[in-house]
Structures are given as C-alpha cells and as structure tokens.
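Researcher: Here's the sequence for the chain we discussed earlier.
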Amino acid sequence: MIPEDVLKNIRRIQIYTSRMVTNAFAGHYQSVFKGMGMEFEEVREYQPGDEIRSIDWNVTARMGHPFVKKFTEERELTIMLLLDISGSSYFGTVNKLKSGLAAELCSVLALSAVKNNDRVGLIAFTDRIEKFVPPRKGLRHVLRIIREALYYEPEGKGTDIPGAMEHLNRMTNGRAVTFVISDFYDKDFKKPLSIANKRHDVIALSITDPRELDLPDIGIINLEDAETGESCLVDTSSQAVRNIYRADALKMSGERTRLFRSINVDHIGIRTDVPYLQSLYTFFRMRERRR
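Model: Thanks. This is the structure I predict for it:
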C-alpha cells in the first residue's frame, strides 16, 4: 500500500508537469521525434514521380523493369529515461534537490511520450542498475515511473554511466530515444555513450546546482563527496580558494560539453536555480530547425 502523502505528491507532480506538457510543448515533441525512423512496407512497380533513390536495383534487375522500395513513417517510438540516482543527486541548495528536479524532468518527458502514444521506460542507476521499468504505454504506467523516480531508495552511491549504457543496449530492441538525466560525475563514459548513440538517439540532460560552481564565503567548512565519502576542510573565506574551486568547476563543465559535442550527443544544461522550461523549449526548437 502506497502512503497517502506519497500518492498526493505523485499526483501533484503529474498535474504540474501535465500542464507544462500541454501548454508549452504541444506539437513540439511530435514534430521533433515523429518520423525519425522509417519502416520497410513493400516493393512495388516504379511510377512517374517516384524518387530514383528508392529504386530497388536487385528486384529491378530480376524483373526486367523498375521497382521501388516503399517505406512508412514509424508511428510509435520507444522513449527510455536513464535516471542517475547516485549519492550526488541528493544535493541541492536552491529550490529543490537535484534528484527532485530529475524526477520532474522524467515526468515531463514521460507524459510527452504517452500523449503521443509512445512507449516509455525507465532505467534508474547508481554504480549498479537499481531499477528497470520496461517501456509501455498509458497514464498508469507513467505514474509508476514518476513514483520510482521520486521514491526509489538506491543501494549504491556511486555512478556507472557505462553500465547504464550497456543495460540499455541489452534490454531494448531496436532504436530508442534515450534521455540520460545525470550530473555526469563519472569517468570514462565517452566511448560507451558514443556506441549507444550510434544505435539510439541519445540526449544528455546535465543537472547542476549553483554551489557546485561557486563556494559562498562562510569560513571553514567540511566538504564531503556524497559518492565516495571522502571529506576535506576548506577555508571558503579565502578568495584564492574560491577562485580555484570555480576554475576547476568551469573546466569540468566545459570538458563535459565538448565531450557531448565530439560524439554528436545533444546536451541540455539544467540548473536547480533556473526554471527548466526554457531549456527544454530551446532544445525542442533547435531540433525542429535542424530537421
């Protein structure tokens, strides 16, 4: 039995994000993702006006006159949400935790999918695969995904993006539009992400809190790595220390952005202190123009 307060919170997020999908993304999702794949339907005789590129030369040679391949647009897509629920996701200093923001993003994307009659699935991961929800349709299924994204209690604390990519490839048949929602505090994930992107359409949503970029001047504090447990004392009253911290953070962020660009993975930067609606809207418009 799910507690009443949990049900209320799931319902609240479902209502909030459903309005966002209806008001802000109506039409954008379909125009961006529909028709990304084509399914072979049949071979038929060539007719005036057919594309020469569609001629099936093997059948044409066998039959003695031209035949063309006919394709139909795929009407159903599989949307996979790869959700990082490692220790670093349970951090946030503005508005909400990164994990809560990630759950909202899952809700928006899942509801967009179900409104267009697409299947949607979830892989929640840390340094292991924590939860796999096979892709299905329907609002009841979306509510389950929201519940798992909000309340699943992970066993691991670290981050294994290559392991999540491997599980994606193993558990999905055919091509999937794949959203990886993470802060990407992991190493050596470039090659696995690149391999996955050759089979799927991978989009990275990186979530950042402002305190991961800038330290406040609040004296000596103890900083602890939420994934490894390592800690150190830092004198935040030192301008030099704050400058080094910011420079390292910006360097890491820049390297991550260049990595995504180098393997042709679309990247959406999300911050806990900035409404994510504009970032998603910009992404959809960019995809529309590119198509």
